[in-house]
Amino acid sequence: MFESRYDSVLLQRAVDAFSRLPGIGPKSALRMALYLLRQPAPESEHLAESIRNLRDKVVYCSECRMISDAPVCPVCSDPNRDRRVICVVENVRDVMSIEHTGRYRGLYHVLGGIISPIDGIGPSDLAIDQLVERIEQGEAREVILALSTTMEGETTCYYLYKRINSYGIKISTIARGVGFGDQLEYTDELTLGRSIENRQPFNPS
Hints:
This protein is α/β, with parallel strands linked by helices. It has eight helices and seven strands, in the order αααββαβαβαβαβαβ. A five-stranded mixed sheet has the order 4-3-5-6-7. Strands 1-2 form a two-stranded antiparallel ribbon.
């Protein structure tokens, strides 16, 4: 295990900070810190400013919960999107994956996770009530349940079906081009695009 400590306290702090990032170990963190030391001051200042702006200025869209630079994201504010269709996803990465396919022109709703009792995540921890509120506004005609095809994803789909089935809207799910156990963010764009286009009525049984 790489546990070297450095004479420079400031270097050690930088390495420790980078090491907290997902997928970054101590060796990679050290390379990043030393790289930044070799760069001109404006480069490091630009990085620091970008991180500050990311943390302080990026917000969640008040309608779909996607990350945005404004209170309402570009998708929700686009008059050319089909507001009758809402695609429900687990996280913002799934929105990006679907958008990259170029085959979906409706709106989104980001739950912020999926139901997972083993991880202590229940329905009240997700943006499910907000989804129901959007449906109650009466504009939506179809909800696409585009969640990962894991056991937790299937459980979440079933729960959502029970919550919104009484509103008389079409409830569909992505076609099984996405195999069981797959996560949307790791699915190639062609397969994901076809799965959205070839969506099927959700069968709760």
